[in-house]
Amino acid sequence: MKAFVQDRYGGPEVLALRTVDDPVPGPGEVLVRVRASSLNAADWHLMRGDPYVVRALDRTTFGWRAPKRPIRGRDLAGVVAALGPGVTDLAVGDEVVGEVLAEGAFAELVAAPADVLARKPADLPFEQAAALPLAGTTALTGLREARLAAGDRLLVNGASGGVGTFAVQLAAALGAEVTAVCSARNADQARALGAVHVVDYARSDFAASGQRYDVVLDLVGNRSLADLRRVLTADGALLLSGGGTSQGGSLFGPMRLFAVAGVRARFVRPQRLLAFRAEPSAAMVADLLAMVAAGTLRPVIDRTYPLADLPEAMRYLEEDHAAAKVVITV
């Protein structure tokens, strides 16, 4: 099969399209012929080995000079091509969508655990389906952990990215009053997705606005913990899931903020400081698909690239601050 592989850390130039052996599905896995994938901050973090500290902290994923697994890509939508031993809930020919934590989706074929895959509705294009799993699951997990409810005030820092566009829609559907922090060029999109208020970060500092929010979702990691807590209500929830912005390499990146929040969390109650991580889940993806079918959620796609142009797609994601999702077709 054709797949993009990397043998060392670096920018998009380290991604090389090669012919490699087809993966073989193991027990509980299926072989999926990939029709579409999408890019996430996790992909460039692994591509660059960034922040550097994770190379020492997560030795199952990061090597010293290259990732432990050479093929990037976690989101996928495709067609089941073969079944591994013990798989009974899926059949060859099923159209599926999900997130593969072990990666490998920037390829023609990927072996994926059957229990992270949901059946894709026939009327949902593969490109839109592939935009859902990681970003949608992250947004849904965070808002559920914060116990966001109708009437709550939510601030989303990074509202125009993949997770942000889903978070704005999910919160608006719940009846929350959403404030989106994004660039001026993405303001209309944020309003169209359900934001009541939009803050242009180039013109206004949300931390100095005097406003207070029941929930703050930080997806950027570019503000101090003090700034973020300043805009929380006395019993509000701060959600930290910032992928950060690519600057070509960093020592700690957003992990510094997560660490500080972890230390302070026990001393600032009833405020809740939550550095959360969403796990791949077929049930979560099924929930998101149901919302798409009901018309309360839609994947927002900025650009679509063929697999052969993956390095250019990654460059666009890193350098041009993609609005919403960047999708790869296979």
From TrEMBL:
<dbReference type="Pfam" id="PF13602">
    <property type="entry name" value="ADH_zinc_N_2"/>
</dbReference>
<dbReference type="GO" id="GO:0016491">
    <property type="term" value="F:oxidoreductase activity"/>
</dbReference>
<dbReference type="InterPro" id="IPR036291">
    <property type="entry name" value="NAD(P)-bd_dom_sf"/>
</dbReference>
<feature type="domain" description="Enoyl reductase (ER)">
    <location>
        <begin position="10"/>
        <end position="328"/>
    </location>
</feature>
<dbReference type="InterPro" id="IPR013154">
    <property type="entry name" value="ADH-like_N"/>
</dbReference>
<dbReference type="InterPro" id="IPR020843">
    <property type="entry name" value="ER"/>
</dbReference>
<dbReference type="InterPro" id="IPR011032">
    <property type="entry name" value="GroES-like_sf"/>
</dbReference>
<dbReference type="Pfam" id="PF08240">
    <property type="entry name" value="ADH_N"/>
</dbReference>
<dbReference type="InterPro" id="IPR050700">
    <property type="entry name" value="YIM1/Zinc_Alcohol_DH_Fams"/>
</dbReference>
<protein>
    <submittedName>
        <fullName>NADPH:quinone reductase-like Zn-dependent oxidoreductase</fullName>
    </submittedName>
</protein>
